[in-house]
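Researcher: Quick test of sequence recovery. Tokens follow.
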């Protein structure tokens, strides 16, 4: 659930995922912790479900610094026409960032999980779940993950309006 009476991913998350999938820059209106609103152009390096919500790891322009944006604080996001650059941020791994909360090494053995993405999310599978194995199927996409944190998985799936099929490995 992402708001009163609304299920499925928030618009800002979908716009950020489209920017990742298309390799484009995105202009965001963002509300910081104290409530100040600013606009900035960013290149999204990865999206991850971290700390109970979606987070975008971004290369902030023009400073070029790595910034983490809580997607719930993104008031608006517009995918631009300019291509995103290729950035090498020392120590940053997009797959690790995307899946860190789902793969807690202290949570026990991993379970294989299949997420069934509806057609509108299928083209964004790689952007939303970096490094996950995805296959196009009739009516959407099937994404295969190995996870250890069931609560994080359920919260992430719920934020996308998804159902889960799982089995022990």
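Model:
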């Amino acid at each position: 659930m992402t708001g009163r009476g609304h299920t499925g991913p928030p618009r800002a998350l979908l716009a950020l995922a489209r920017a990742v999938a298309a390799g484009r820059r995105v202009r965001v209106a963002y509300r910081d912790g104290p409530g100040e609103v600013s606009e900035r152009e960013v290149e999204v390096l990865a999206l991850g479900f971290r700390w109970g919500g979606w987070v975008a790891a971004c290369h902030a322009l023009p400073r070029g610094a790595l910034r983490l944006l809580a997607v719930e604080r993104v008031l608006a996001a517009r995918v631009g026409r300019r291509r995103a650059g290729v950035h090498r941020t020392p120590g940053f791994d997009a797959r690790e960032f995307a899946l860190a909360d789902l793969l807690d090494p202290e949570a026990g053995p991993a379970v294989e999980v299949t997420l069934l993405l509806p057609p509108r999310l299928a083209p964004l599978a790689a952007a939303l779940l970096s490094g996950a194995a995805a296959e196009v199927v009739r009516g959407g996409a099937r994404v295969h993950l190995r996870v250890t944190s069931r609560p994080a998985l359920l919260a992430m799936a719920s934020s996308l309006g998804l159902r889960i099929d799982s089995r022990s490995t």
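DSSP finds four helices and nine strands in the chain.
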